From TrEMBL:
Keywords: Membrane, Plasmid, Transmembrane, Transmembrane helix. InterPro entries: DUF1385. It comes from Allomeiothermus silvanus (strain ATCC 700542 / DSM 9946 / NBRC 106475 / NCIMB 13440 / VI-R2). It comes from the Bacteria. This is DUF1385 domain-containing protein. The keyword Mitochondrion does not apply. The chain crosses the membrane at residues 75-95, 101-124, 163-181, 193-211. Coiled coil: none annotated. The keyword Flavoprotein does not apply.
Length: 281
């Protein structure tokens, strides 16, 4: 694998995405526990913000194309529709009735989102299990990226890699979070300027890129320590099933001429069956 062409990886709730400038490949499990492959050819996306946009767009496309083959798809769609059909009427009623000032509306809506997430995690097992499974896929994706960067691309080489990675998007989120929390009180006092918070993120991209390129710099180490603290809540030691999904994605990425059985929208069946994940260390 040419590292100059590698754009990165991402964990999805049912597999691992790897992306180069030529192709996106997703190794995932269907509802029967069979390892599958999804690939899509790309037109040499450039780097920078355009490359980042392409990366997230293609990951979303892979999720959309393959999620109907997951057993929990209906429950996820039902949950989203229930939230939308419940939240929109309540929001419109409170907004039109002007029962609360704008800053209290913002605080209330933020609190409701947090409480809904906590309630789903506590009382809806498929949601909690999905997050735990995604954390293991996240760990498998990190190990695969490390193995590619170190030139130790073998099944045993991937298993021996560390979990934390300086280029993880969790580090960017951890860098953004303090600025968001500092600006949140002002957004309560002036709700019309909430969009100013969105301007902080593009300003942090150069800092994030510098951190990735100079992880040994004293300042970068301190910033990465914050990101690693957050990463530990989004990662878990992968089991054999998650590692095989990452390996399958790499195989799809390295194909010189993908066969028609692995082109967009068609999955290639494999004999590998899901095994119980190892306990997190």
């Amino acid at each position: 694998m040419d590292l100059n062409k590698l754009m990165g990886g991402m964990a999805l709730p049912h597999g691992v995405v790897l992306m180069s400038t030529e192709r996106v490949a997703l190794g995932y499990y269907d509802k029967e526990g069979t390892l599958q492959l999804y690939t899509r050819e790309l037109n040499n996306p450039s780097g920078g913000l355009k490359g980042l946009w392409t990366f997230f767009l293609e990951a979303a496309r892979a999720l959309w194309k393959t999620y109907p083959h997951q057993g929990e798809f209906r429950s996820v769609v039902a949950g989203v529709l229930a939230g939308v059909l419940t939240g929109i009427p309540i929001g419109l009623f409170l907004s039109r009735a002007s029962l609360l000032p704008a800053w209290q509306m913002l605080l209330l809506s933020t609190s409701l989102v947090v409480l809904m997430f906590l309630a789903l995690y506590r009382f809806y097992p498929p949601f909690r299990q999905g997050l735990q499974r995604m954390a293991r896929y996240h760990g498998a994706e990190h190990k695969m990226i490390w193995a590619l960067e170190k030139g130790e691309v073998s099944r045993e080489g991937v298993r021996q890699q560390p979990l934390l990675h300086p280029a993880c998007g969790s580090n960017l989120f951890a860098l953004y979070l303090p600025f968001y929390l500092l600006s949140f009180p002002q957004s309560l006092l002036a709700p019309g300027f909430w969009w100013l918070q969105l301007l902080i993120l593009p300003l942090l991209f150069p800092v994030f890129g510098w951190m990735r390129r100079h992880p040994e710099h004293p300042l970068a180490r301190r910033l990465l320590a914050l990101g690693y603290r957050f990463q530990r809540h989004t990662l878990a030691e992968p089991g054999e099933a998650e590692l095989e999904a990452a390996w399958r994605a790499l195989q799809g990425l390295e194909m010189e001429t993908p066969s028609t059985s692995t082109v967009e929208g068609v999955r290639e069946r494999c004999d590998y069956r899901r095994v119980k994940p190892r306990q997190a260390r």
